[in-house]
Amino acid sequence: MYKFYINNTDNEYHYGELARVFLSDDEFEVIPFRAPEGKLCLRDGHYLINAQNSGDRDEIKREMYRLLSGLTGRTSGWGTLTGVRPLKLAYEMYAEAGSVSGMEQLLAERYLVSADKISLLTEILQYQISHISSDPSSKSAVYIGIPFCPTRCEYCAFASNVAPEEDIAEYFSNLIEEIKYTGKLIRDNSTVIESVYIGGGTPTTLNAEQLGQLIAAVRDEMGIDPAAIEFTIEAGRPDTITPDKLKVMKESGVSRISINPQSMKDETLRRIGRDHSAEDIRQGYRLASEYGFDVINADLIAGLPGEDIDDFKASLEEILSLGANNITVHTLSVKRGSRLREHDPEYYRRGTDQVSQMVDFARKRLADEGFYPYYIYRQKHQMGALENVGYCREDTHSIYNIRIMEEKQTIIALGAGGIGKIYFPEEDRLERIANVSNYKVYNERFDEMLARKNKYYGG
Q: Residue 234: helix, strand or coil by DSSP?
């Protein structure tokens, strides 16, 4: 086991996260340390970092990165960055340097980010600067969680459950009451809502009547016209999409939906726990096209078990042919709480070169098709320490996705698994207000869930 003694620090967190990019948890230990004066003797495999006694964390991380790279023979395109929001840092560097070129230089020198990843950040930053102009803090977003799915995917760690209809009905009844309660607060405080995002889980697990009631409750209780703002409903599982559900969404003014294949390979769909076929995905897209939604988003995952680069390429090509005009390319993350993590916790460390090829192919192919990268985030235990990138055709970007990553807007979250955030612009600070993640606990503690909504307005 490697032991890394980090001199002149009391907190090992940031250095431990960097070590995990290169090594598994059982291969290293990071030890905060205060080096004594005089000569220090270390055993083989033990390393002192920051012998110069620097107080600059970035300098220490650069030293550690170079050591880890030398020990393992590997590099990371993201250099010393381990956070989930690299674009947020890029904006800070842009403000500090006063120019794009200055930002790029700082990212390379201070954080050892590769030229390829710097180029990606630059593209996204420039898209956002040219397309997103309003002050995010002057408006709020609403997130509504529907924590149910037909089956649970192998890689999933979200608040999603396979539940009987009576449980869904009880949850739905409480959710409508939460919308009513929150709607009164929104109206009383003249809150301007910029976007509504109904996610999960799979919201289209609800039946058509419930979907209609849900949209109507948001419209009537919150004073929101779905047709006048960005209003998104995830219809992620094609086996939950029916003509009557699409009809009620379209007639209610919903302009954006997500149909998320993850893969177009039947064998992969079975392996990851999806109870539908690639043909079901095709049929979902055909139905959605008939109803004329403005934006249809698709999610694809690079690095799914059993897939090679040709499988990924074939899935992307088919999604393009089906007409998706907003595509998010995820790199597989092996999250705590997922069955994949239980079965194979080190899966994300294998096949990283191939996954990198998938991500690179997607970027080039989507650019050829007129797509722009417009938002980005990273996750822990992500294959190759890579990233998730949202691509869009001109003006089909999701303002909700952009806002949630820049962290400069209040997000009012309802339902089980909803994590709200209050933004304090004077302090440039967020405060989290989370509902419980389990739908049964949500039902049991429903009065508490209502009371938490007062915190958005100082109650």
A: strand
